[in-house]
Amino acid sequence: MATTIIQTEKLVGKRIRRREDPRLITGTATYVDDMQMPGMHHAAIVRSPHAAAKIRSISIKAAAEAPGVVAVFTGKDTEKVGPVPCGASLPGLRVPHHYILAIDRVYLVGHPVAVVVATDRYLARDAADLVEVDWEVLPAVADPEKAIAPGAPPVHPQWPDNVAFVYNQEGGDVDKAFAEAEVIVKQRITSQRLIPSAMETRGVLAEWRGADRQMTLYTSTQVPHLVRTLVAGMLGLEENRMRVVAPEVGGGFGSKLNIYPEEALMGFVSMKIGKPVKWIESRRENFLCTIHGRGHVDYFEVAAKKDGTILGIKLKLIQDQGAYHQLLGPAIPTLSVLMMPGLYRTKNIRAEVIGVFTNCTPTDAYRGAGRPEATHGIERMVDILADELGIDPAEIRLKNFVHNEEFPFPTATGLTYDSGDYAAPLQKAMGIVDYTKLRAEQAAARKQGKLMGIGICTYGEICGFGPSPATPAGGWECGTVRVEPSGKVTLLTGSCHHGQGEETTFAQLAADELGVDIDDILVLRGDTAIVPYGIGTFGSRATAIGGTALYYAMQDLKVKMKKFGAIMLDSHDVSYANGQVVCNKMGKSVSFKEIAAASYRAMKLPPNTEPGLVSTHFWEPPNFTFGFGAHIAVTEIDPETGQITVRRYLAVDDCGNIINPLIVDGQVHGGVAQGMGQALWEQAVYDDNGQLVTGEYTDYTMPRAHMMPWIESQHTTTPSPVNPLGVKGVGEAGTIGASPSLVNSVVDALSHLGVRHIDMPLTPEKIWKLVAGGKN
Amino acid sequence: MLARAIPGCEGLEQTGPDEYRMKMKMALASLSGAFEGKVKITDQSPPSSFRLLVEGSSKIGFVKGEGLLKLTPSGEGTEVAYEGDAQIGGTMAAIGQRLIDGTSKMMIKKFFEKLAAESAS
């Protein structure tokens, strides 16, 4: 037994390289498509080329007789499989029955109508072309505002007005605020449809073992346990007979926080043919058949005093829901309502949300999910107000921020902001860029006819989703810490991370907490047969909730270790420090490994002592956490071409305590890239007939590395009181901060030409026209 | 004559008065498909104009269009003016947007060139 105490180096707060990266960047990780099984078959899905049509008949004869084909199924075969679920609940919500294969009518391009199963992927794909569908084409509608106008073709004939739901929320006294206002600014602001574009498309491999009555479903998902509960339910299979595995998942951004028809369909097929069956989504399918993001038309009104004090905010929000509700679709715009006051003190808000059916791909959570839309709206409105009143955009924000002494701050929308110092990141950002000097430079540039803009966004983000009452399926998370007999540590987490780096951050936490070498720690996730029931990774929740669950599991584990240590040291007065249990009187100690071995060997244990070293904790957060920050974008515009150059991009984010600054920077960079994508380039465009005309990367402009500016990432630190780690969340911060700061910057560059607002994306064509025309 | 003039046309068969069944091959960048469809001639007011309705589908999508062709004597020959609308859908619509304008202009040009050549011979 050792008698010295080793002072181990703390890892939390260190820029440690991600432990998962070697396998990811060398292409050796295992995704669904890498999985092979004996007897595995392949599925190809026949999809509708029409946005709205009746199916007169389907002929599968030619396909069924094609080489290698073992089965073809249509909606008639799968009619009894449960509908694709919608987890959101709103009063009066209209939920269309979402069959996994269309029965007699299709509602969007890409709607699955049949599945062809063959011994080979290519044979399945070829045979899918032989399925003949006799269509009766119907008129379609693809624009949400047109869809709710009188005379629009009904998406679902039972609801001719195309209204999916109407949701109202009000706080304070809005009428009084607007009556007392000295100035009211109004603006229509859109947040366009986006295609989430995870690097790995979706994929499902189902393996039904009839003799065992057990199903294993490998699927590229953010929420394996939810998939198990819901897909088992769709298939009429007992939940404990279904195992869901999310192997390596190549990005999700919310698009894999869902339940898709293909997950149940592959389960159905495997049960029918008694063989494993795999379907891998093609990129073209991904554009059409995986959820889209955003899709807002917002009508904002802000009432204020002449000194810039915001008195109240009104919002009419039209959300394009697409043809169906996916898992959380209708809930997403309600998050925009929650976030609509931003970081500002105003207590008077009124929002009316109209969810609209269109013959388009369903919209659902996409990185930020409701918060980028809200932040874009309020941050644009604040700039418009500042412009109207001739107040500097930084000054008007500082004037309206929630004061530090007001935390925890109850908002007009019913949230409680946990902690904050909202001026701090803005002041830090202004200091770093030398804001005063920049403004002087801008004035000088204008005199020379040059177009330069400075854009500010100060944002708040609901992180750590969330307390269970605020989520459709529980907002807690589970964590298990298991010490093996050899002293190696296995962490099991319900946070099904898929690129966020928790294999590193959770190991850092555990290394510090338990005092063990990080190389002795393995983090496992994503398999319902291994990990206790968990919720998943989305909504900037993994560290704040999943990390905290592990933290409490480790506290429990340390109590157990102390108990074993006390037995081994024959002392009641022991403490746990640096991976050892030490006798406080004698100074003797037993090591982590010695305790681990003894706990399983279980010799000389007093009666009623439980052997082994495993602790599990399910942690329910008392509140969300609220990250915040300030982003500043400096842009220059070429008046000849309308080309925007982002000269400087600075993000100052406050995500509470930081476990790994390198990973936080990575999250900010990725988030800013996606936000910049929305601000400058990306847009899913449908024609009037509901055809997605941006169905490939030639027409849908994804940000590429060479299009990105240098992103500076800085921080202020305001710990969250909601969890013992003091962390908030940063997964979506970059996306939320980027689009308003960039659009504000470009509008600022053109403000002297009378430009007050520009809808995204800020394509060179749009900008060139504004510069040439001089008017919005 | 029409069958020979339509680029990619592999068969044109009369099914009724002024109605034809048509098979044609069309390529759009990396996509190509064998279309089967109908051609209908309406609103005939010889010799100055007629309307052409075309409908076709293939595994790469569908096309639906109509065009008004106006013929006016011009010197030695005839001037042909056309206007119309086309709707496309399916994979072609999703991935071929940038190419559709160019391809359709090219096909129309080919059509009239061939038609002119055929009529001359």
Summarize the structure.
The complex is a heterodimer of chains A (776) and B (121). By secondary structure, chain A is of the alpha+beta class. Chain A is built from 20 helices and 28 strands.
Structure overview:
The complex is a heterodimer of chains A (776) and B (121). With 776 residues, chain A is an alpha+beta fold. Helices cover 29% and strands 24% of the residues of chain A. Chain A has 3 domains: 21-28 and 476-619, Aldehyde oxidase/xanthine dehydrogenase, molybdopterin binding domain (Aldehyde Oxidoreductase, domain 4, 2-Layer Sandwich), CATH 3.30.365; 32-138 and 201-249 and 256-289, Alpha-Beta Complex (Aldehyde Oxidoreductase, domain 3); 296-467 and 622-773, Aldehyde oxidase/xanthine dehydrogenase, molybdopterin binding domain (Aldehyde Oxidoreductase, domain 4), CATH 3.30.365.10. In chain A, helix 11 (371-389) runs parallel beside helix 19, helix 15 (502-514) packs parallel to helix 16 and helix 16 (542-569) crosses helix 17 (592-601). Chain A starts with 20 loop residues before the first helix and ends with a helix. Chain B has helices at residues 2-5, 91-95, 97-120; strands spanning 9-16, 19-28, 31-45, 49-58, 61-74, 77-89. Chain B contains 3 helices and 6 strands; from the N terminus they run αββββββαα. Helix content of chain B is 27%, strand content 58%. In chain B, a hairpin with a 2-residue loop joins strand 5 (61-74) and strand 6. Chain B has a single domain, classed as 2-Layer Sandwich (Alpha-D-Glucose-1,6-Bisphosphate, Chain A, domain 4). Chain B has a 6-stranded antiparallel sheet. With 121 residues, chain B is of the alpha+beta class. The interface between A and B is medium-sized, with 18 and 14 residues.
